[in-house]
Fold this protein.
Amino acid sequence: MGSNLASVKKAQNVLVGGVNSPVRAFRHVQAPFVILAHGAGVSVQDPAGHTWIDFISGWGALILGHVHPVVLRTMRSALSRNWPLGLSSPYEVELARLMIEAVPTLQRVRFTVSGTEACMIAIRLARAATGRSKILVFQGAYHGHSDSLMAASTKGIPESLGDELLRLPYQDLQAAEQAIQQQADSIAAVIIEPVAANMGVIVPQIEFLQNLRRLTTAHGILLIFDEVVTGFRLGLGGAQERFGVLPDLTTFGKIIGGGLPIGAVGGSEQIMTLLAPEGNVFHGGTFAGHPLVMQTGMATLKELKRHPPYRRLERLGAQLEQGLLLQANRSGVPIQINRIGSMLTVFFSNRPVRNEEEVLLCNRVRFARWANVLREQGILIPPSPFEAIFLSAKHSESDIKKFIVASAHAFDAAGKA
Ligand SMILES: Cc1ncc(COP(=O)(O)O)c(C=O)c1O
């Protein structure tokens, strides 16, 4: 651990807070952060050789696990031939085709370099398509850190942008209905994570999504599904296929890049062709459609199609959920587990957790103890109560059992907090 503290200090001397994304600083669990040097399958290792079974899974990106051999082979061969080419390549066409084939509402796709950028462009498209400016978002959601979508929740963004954002409680249909009815003429889009993953996992009532679809259609508002997390995780067709609710625009990231930086926005030909060069909504990028990323993405989606892991992930997810519930019960610690397929969050609460307000009522000190004791026993989970535990196709029953066994001590420790 001493060597880790020295590495943390070294990082803090050159990077802000020692990290490049705040959650990696482990502030939510009040512990020195972990620095990882290697990953293979589900195993990750720090520079001193400590290993953990990883349940962060690249914040959901690594559905095939770390350094999957098929993706690695593709990456190796692409590395020797396809650095950024500066012009179009066949690979972006192929990755777009694979996505269009899998996801119900896609006719055209535009690649970006991050999920943030994809959501930013989706909003721009919606504003252009409707000639309106307001965006309805849900409290506790994260759609990347563009100014439009982060207004009023971080310093450094003009207040006027906050006026363009309506923030309502997740799953509060009455509030959404009222806002839409009162302000329909100025609302361009409703953007939603069809399963919330950034206040911990919250699986909405399907009727909520259906009603949002009904209301937005009735008022000429675009419905945007942010499937940066759920895309190719809840199934090849994402949340929209699973729930049968079809958005106007969809954003992607994470899995479609096979572990490399990516984002994408997609939708109908009619809306998407508002983008330049066909239309006058600008988006461009030096690295958009990077051939190396496109090929790792293609390899990943083809592998998911060839060997769909979803049923097995559902089974492993259910095993983990049941095992954790049993252990918490044995320790006398009330918890709620919100889970869909291979993504779940443990909330330290004795009441259901359905929106941000209820998330904030959960016991975060207990969460921190639980996460820290798990880590001491070789189980690495996201160091924040507002994130999802992700399974990958490489997790085995034995990995799940180890998590459950380790959680016995972890829940005991949490119970003392
Ligand atoms: C639902 C959702 N949307 C958008 C983003 C932003 O993606 P990126 O981190 O690639 O910018 C994230 C990132 O975690 C996310 O979870």
